[in-house]
Amino acid sequence: MPKINAARLLSDLRSLAQFGRYRTGVHRPTFSKDDMDARRWLAQQYEASGLQAQIDGVGNVFGMPRSDRRSLLIGSHAESQNHAGWLDGALGVIYGLEIARTFAETPHCAGLPIAPVAWADEEGHYVSMLGSRSFIGDLDEAEIDRAVNVDHGLPLRDALRAAGLAGVARSPAEPGRHVGYLEAHIEQGDALEASRKRIGVVTSIVGLWQYSIVFHGIQNHAGTTRMAIRKDAGVAAAMLAMAIAKRFPEVAGPHSVWTTGRITLEPGAPNIIPRKAEMLFQFRDSEMPVLESLDAVLRELIEGVATKTGCRAGIERTEAGEPWQMDPAFQAAIENAAARHAPGTCVRMPSGAGHDAQVVARKLRAAMLFVPSIGGVSHHWSENTDDADLVLGCQVLADAAEMILRCEGGEM
Known about the structure:
Distance between the termini: 14 Å
Structural class: alpha+beta
Oligomer: single chain
C-alpha cells in the first residue's frame, strides 16, 4: 500500500494557509489576489509532481497525469469563506496533491494515475459550486454573465478578467477520462468527535431548499393604532418562526435541520408598525420525500399565519439542491482502508453541508471522507483538526484510491 509523507502533507497544508492568512485561519475569497496566488502555487506544485497543470476559465486548477489510463480525481475547493478556517476545502485539495506525489514515488503505484483538482467558488462568493458545475456542463455563459459577488456586487465577468482568466477556455469533463472522484473534508460538525470516531464515510450529501418568505402588512403609528386592527408584518414573521419550531419536528427526518437565517423589517423603526417582513429560511435533509414534506408543511404554516394576522404572504424557493447518494463501492473502499489503519474508529454518516462531490457525482462515481473538526467548529478562523487525524485521513484516502484504481483496471 502507498505510504504518504506525513511531514510533507502538514507542511503543504500550512503553506497553502499562508495565502490570505487571518489569525489562525484564512480570508481567501474567490478570485481575490490571495485566491489566485494560491491557485498558481497549486499549479506549480502539480507541475513539480510530474503532472500537467492547468487553470481553466473559471479558476479550476487541474493536475492531469501524463498517462492514457483513466485517472481518479481527488480534490476539493481552494477558496475560503470570509475570515474562516484553514482546512475547509484546503484539506481535500492538499490530500489530492499528496496522494498524487505518493503514487508517483511508490513503484507499485506509479502506474495508477491520480488527478488532483482544486475547484473554484464552492463557497458561492459568486455562484455556489461554480467550478464543479462548469466541469459537469451545468453552467452556461448566461449564468456567468448574470453573476455578481454577494458581498460587494462585482460582476463575475469583471472578476475573471482581473484574475487573468478572460478568454481562457473552461475544461469540461471528458467522457471516459476519469474513473471517479474522491473528496476529503473536515466534518464541520461534532458527530465524529462526540462519538470518538476518526473517519467518517459519507453516505449521502443533503439537499438544501432555501426560501424568501415575505409578509405584507399595513404601516401605521405604533402608539395610536389599536392592537385589534393591526396588520403587523413583523408579528407574522415571528409567528411563522415559532410555528416552524413546533411543527417541523413532527415531519422531519432523523438528520433534518432548519434555520431562519434572517428577518428584516420595513421601515424598521421602533415607533412604526412594520409594513413588510422578509424571512430567509432553509432546511436540509438527505431524503427527497422528507424535503417535499417539509416544503408542504412550510406552505401550510405560511397560509395559516397569513390568515391569523391579516397579512398578505408570498414565498419564493431560491435554492433547491437535490440530495445525492455516494457510490457504494467507493464507500466500501474507504471503509476497508479505515479498518486497516484505525480499526473501530470509522462510521458511515450523511453530510449536512453541501460539497462539490454532490455535483461531480452527477457525472462520475464519487465518494467523500470526513475527519473530525475540533469542537465541531467550521466557517470560523478558529477551525482546526488534530495533526494525527489530518495524517490518518490522507493515508486512508490514499489506500482507498489504490483499491479503486486497481479494481477499475481489472487488477483485483
